[in-house]
Amino acid sequence: MRYLVSFLVLVIIILTGFVAYFVGRQNGLPVSIKNVPISVSPVSPIVTEAKLNPDLPTLIPQATAIPLQVINGGGILSFPHYQLKASSDWVYSREVQGQDNEKIILKNGSYGLSITQGGFGGAVCLFPGDADNEGPSSRYVQYVEITTNSGDQLRRSTPENGQGFGICQHTQYGWGAPTLYGHMSLTTPNNPTQEMLREIDEILTSLTKI
Q: Model pTM?
């Protein structure tokens, strides 16, 4: 009888182990893991567009500015004293022949501007649409209008032959030369560049009576 009881106890222990094993598998306890291929879907990169903040200034590279030089001249006879400004790559000189004559000269390579004050006569400047004049006159086919710092109106004018330029000023008598600053003369090559003409116009614009 004692051996029967021992045998039954052993059977119960074995059955209990099997039951615990199968219950553990059902509850997700660790089991052997096989090599299963994993499929990975490609992920598209997320691109964020950078937008400018309208409240911040936009920085634009600027060319290094050439220093300006201030040139004074004039005061001869009835002509006024004046000053003008030109970049430092223009070479300045002054010629004087007695007390009644002065010539201010600016040069930049093959380009030049001169202003002469002294005793000389004048001429009428005629433009397209103007009638011929009986007295001394010069006819021009086109022009660029310039207003000086003192409010005077000038015209850088192209003559009929297309060579060189004349500088005329508007007064109560119409367009004429010389100007109230003196006789202005431009020296340029046959085919001046627009950049150099723009710089000459800026110099003329800087004219100021003092």
A: 0.67
Q: Are 102 and 82 in contact (CB under 8 A)?
A: no
d(CA 153, CA 175): 9
Task: Give 119-176 as a 3 state SS string.
Answer: CCCCEEEECCCCCCCCCCEEEEEEEEEEECCCCCEEEEEEECCCCCCEEEEEECCEEE
Residue 12 amino acid letter: I
Q: Identify the helix (H) or strand (E) that includes residue 20.
A: helix 2-26
Closest by alpha carbon to 157, among 172, 168, 171? 168
Q: What is the pairing mode between strands 153-159 and 102-108?
A: unpaired
Q: How far is CA 146 from CA 44, 48, 155, 174, 202, in A?
A: 61, 51, 6, 15, 9
pLDDT tens-digit series, residues 136-178 = 999 999 999 999 999 999 999 999 888 889 999 999 999 999 9
What pLDDT digit, counting tens, does each position of 20-79 carry?
A: 555 455 555 444 434 444 444 444 444 434 344 433 333 334 445 678 999 999 999 999
Gap between the Cα atoms of 75 and 103, Å rounded: 11
Beta strands in 1-133 (DSSP E): 68-74, 81-87, 91-96, 102-108, 111-117, 123-126
Per-domain residue ranges of the chain = 68-209
Write down how long the chain is. Answer: 210
